[in-house]
Amino acid sequence: MADITSVPGLRHLRGSPTGHVRHLRRGRVVHEGTGQSFWFRPLNAVLSEIPVDDRELPLLFHARTADFQDLSVQVTVTFRVTDPALASTRVDFSIDPGTGRLRGAPLEQLGSILTESAQQYALSYLTGAPLAVALADGVAEVGRRLERGLSDDRRLAETGISVVDVRVVAIRPDPEVEKALQTPTREQLQQEADRAMFERRALAVERERAISENEMHTRIELAKREEQLVTQRGANARRQAEDEADTTRIQSEAAAAQRLRLAEAQAAGARALGAAHAASEAARLAAYREVSEATLLGLAMKELAANLPKIQSLVLTPDLIAPLLARLGATPMAAPTATAAAEAAEEER
């Protein structure tokens, strides 16, 4: 918007870089161009300001496809005024010389022109295409047709407007139809999800089966090794028992042999002792063989006396000695000898 400063009887206008100002006085152009700055008299000046910058125009309109389905088309058109002088003659861009504001709504008028033209080119395609084709290829095709049609539009060219860019934002059906169209895709996606879930479960079951088989093989292998261990332990126990039996047998045989040798030695010793005793007895008997009977009797009495218990006193009567002497056939001198032997034995006791 132009900046206008007031002084008594005059006005000063200062334009902008994006505003094309046109100053007419008495039907003639006095000032024209962007970035203008000049003085003017408000009573005889006709001022117009045409924006020459790029403008965004969002469009939203409805269309019906060949199969009678309603569509909402959302388009954004970028345009600018390329011929401000021509545009000022077709559309009212006049401004108030006191405030610099537009007196009318020229931009809304340009928007209406663009909207009607864009809607016409979009409908020419959408009304002849079915819903599926319009939704699949409509964005690109509508964009091409709008760009080509608006660029070649005679009315826009005569108004001094040039279309810079056309963007089709969206083409959407009614919510119920859109939901119905989304259902097969959703079902397919759900089926893919279910299939993936089933495959994941099958893979988990397969892995669990593999783990179970591995555990079973491990248990079988452990059982086999345990069986081998038990067998080896039995063999070791048998070998140990056999070794112990052999050791016991050897020890028994050694002990028996030792006892046998000991018995034989004892027997040999006994035989030798017996032989020695026998020899001694034989020698003694041989010695006694030369001794008289009375002497032997005295020695016997002496031996008897040595082996008898201790006797305090012994009384020998003639009645006791007489028969003994008679049996011995002793002479009268023998009695004192026997008596003397008895007395000697008594003394020794």
What is the strand and helix layout of this fold?
Elements: E1 3-7, E2 10-14, E3 19-25, E4 28-34, E5 37-40, E6 45-51, E7 55-64, E8 70-81, H1 84-90, H2 106-126, H3 131-151, H4 154-159, E9 161-173, H5 175-289, H6 293-307, H7 318-328, H8 334-348
Antiparallel strand pairs: 1-2, 2-5, 3-4, 3-6, 7-8, 8-9
Helix pairs in contact: 2-3, 6-8
Question: Could you write a compact summary of the structure shown?
Answer:
The protein is α+β, with helices and mostly antiparallel strands and 349 residues long.
Q: How would you explain this protein's 3D organization?
A:
The strands form 3 sheets. The chain has a 3-stranded antiparallel sheet with strand order 1-2-5, with no helix packed on it. A 3-stranded antiparallel sheet has the order 4-3-6, covered by helices on one side. Among the domains are: 3-173, 2-Layer Sandwich (Tetrahydropterin Synthase, Chain A); 292-348, no CATH class. The radius of gyration is 78 Å and the shape is rod-shaped. It contains 8 helices and 9 strands. Strand 1 (3-7) and strand 2 (10-14) form a beta hairpin. 60% of the residues lie in helices and 20% in strands. Mean pLDDT is 83; it is low at 330-342 and 344-349. With 349 residues, it is α+β, with helices and mostly antiparallel strands.
